[in-house]
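Researcher: Next entry in the queue.
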Amino acid sequence: MVKIKQSKTYALFYAHVHSKAHSPRSREAYLRWVERLGEFYQRDGTGLRRISERQVLDYLIYLRDDQQLAAATVNQALVPIRILYRDVLGRDWKLWREFHLQRREPLPTVLTRREVGQVLACVHEGRFKAVLSLVYHCGLRLSETLKLKPTDIDSGRGVVRVSHGKGDKAREVPICPQMIARLRRFWNGSSFLFLTEIARDLFIYAVFLCFGSFLCVTTLTSFRLIFSGAFNPSAASNFCCISLA
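Model: Structure for this entry, 245 residues:
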C-alpha cells in the first residue's frame, strides 16, 4: 500500500500549496488535513484520488458530529480538501456549495481600564511592561509586537506598520504620541524595537513561565487574550508577586 505522502496525488497537492503565497503555518496545516483525510480512508484501500464526493462529505460530518470539532476547525479541514479536489483535480462538486457550517460568534469580553491597569501593574520590569502596553494599545499579537523594528513606527503619521501579521498579511494600526515617546525610552539600539532575536525567544519563554497558570486556555500567538478574556478579580493576588525582571 502506497503511503499518503508518497502518492502522486499528494505530490500534486504539495506542489500546488507551495506555489501559492500561503504562510508556512498555513501550508503545514493544509498538508496535514489532506494527510488525515487520506489516512482516514487508507484502511479501506482507498487512495486520495479515488475518494468520492460522498466520502469527503462523510469525513466532514465525522469531524463535526463524531469528533465534535468546532465549526472553525471543520472549516480549516474543508479549505485544503476543497483545494485538492476542486483546484488540483478539477472536481467541481456540489458539496463545495451546499455544505454549510453554523458558527457561533460570541461577543468578546472587554476589560475596563482599571482591570487592564491591574494586569499591567503586576509586571515590574519597565521594558516588559512597555511590550504588553503596546499589545493592548494597538491590538497586536505578542509575536507581531516582538518583531517590530524602529522603522515600523511612523511617528509623523501616528501609525505602526505590521509587516507580517496573521496569514502573512500587512496592516497599519494607530498609535498615540505618548506611546511613541514611551517606546523610545526602551529601545536599546538593536535592529528590533525591544529585544534582539535571541532575547526575544527567551522573553516569550519567561512570559509563559510567569503567566502559565493564567494562560492555561490561551496560546502563544493569542497572548493578547490577557486583555480580552474574562478577568477574575479574585485572582489579582496571584499577579501581585509576578516579576519579569
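Model: Confidence is low (pLDDT under 50) at residues 212-245.
Researcher: Noted, moving on.
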